[in-house]
């Protein structure tokens, strides 16, 4: 049987990984500034993570969530403490798209309304419910064309116009747009959006699938604006590569049996992975580290990368050029053995290194980038 060929694969076979480094089957070392679509938060094969997962596997590996799973409560407690959302509840699932589907479903049940408002260029997932939560025409299937999500610019008047329809259950927003090209609504915009949602009886869903878990230097990117969304969706960095997602739910939203459900969500191994991530974030003070190294990386890029704009916060960084970055990205990998990401905007390089990246590794990336930038764009 063949694999269904729906995304391109880099012709590299990693056989070993540690921290921000990978090695392929020929012994070549690589530096990972992308983390496989932003999933590597605490570094590859972190010893605490490996130990936690191994112990869990030797104990009770998997069992579906039809029985008591104490490690789920342990995870909820730790996440509440580390994120500053101890009064919220946690629903666990397996991916970012699933988290957003559950968030939108919950908002719709809670308000009795069916429409949502989202932002142009956003990406909230690809499954048939969440596929409607992007306006990327390459992703939206014909049956989703008539979806109930209105996509608007980052324009409060446009948001208000949709909210005035009276049928909006939620606004969903990435506090830092990832796939779209590291686009940041301002803190004031987020604050005003939260107020508008309240005024019109809609919930605010913060999609922190990519920007959460310390990536921006705070646990959640929306915390830079000081807002408290009604629902926060998480995945990616939550499990450092192990599939897990979830939503954090405000106390006003009441649970009832059957409202949401899942077979695999919150299984033992996924919870062990997610707990290990939180423990390492705390023990190694990774929020402060991401702030410091992110600041260093961005200020170096601003001074020397010949870019049009350096975007992002913490270690979620976009380098916007005035030319397509495909060749630079390809050469970073083939000549300098460094993985970086792209975005739906072909002129943006997307950087998502592990939160415990070292200064020496940042410098290695910078030197490689500077060597590749076309001479005419250098300052
Ligand atoms: N939300 C955001 C902000 C994302 O970046 C992504 C994936 O890139 C998703 C949701 C979907 O996550 P998943 O691929 O785990 O379904």
UniProtKB/TrEMBL annotation:
Superkingdom of this entry's organism? Bacteria
Record's family?
A: Belongs to the class-III pyridoxal-phosphate-dependent aminotransferase family.
InterPro entries from the UniProt entry: Aminotrans_3, Aminotrans_3_PPA_site, Class-III_PLP-dep_AT, PyrdxlP-dep_Trfase, PyrdxlP-dep_Trfase_major, PyrdxlP-dep_Trfase_small
Q: Which cofactor does it need?
A: pyridoxal 5'-phosphate
Question: What keywords would UniProt list here?
Answer: Aminotransferase, Pyridoxal phosphate, Transferase
> Where are the bilayer-spanning segments?
none
CDD domains (UniProt xref): OAT_like (cd00610)
| Enzyme class label | transferase
Q: Does the keyword Mitochondrion apply?
A: no
- Annotated GO MF terms: identical protein binding; N2-acetyl-L-ornithine:2-oxoglutarate 5-aminotransferase activity; pyridoxal phosphate binding
Organism for this UniProt entry: Hymenobacter luteus
Which protein is depicted? Acetylornithine aminotransferase
EC number in record: 2.6.1.11
Q: Does the keyword Transferase apply?
A: yes
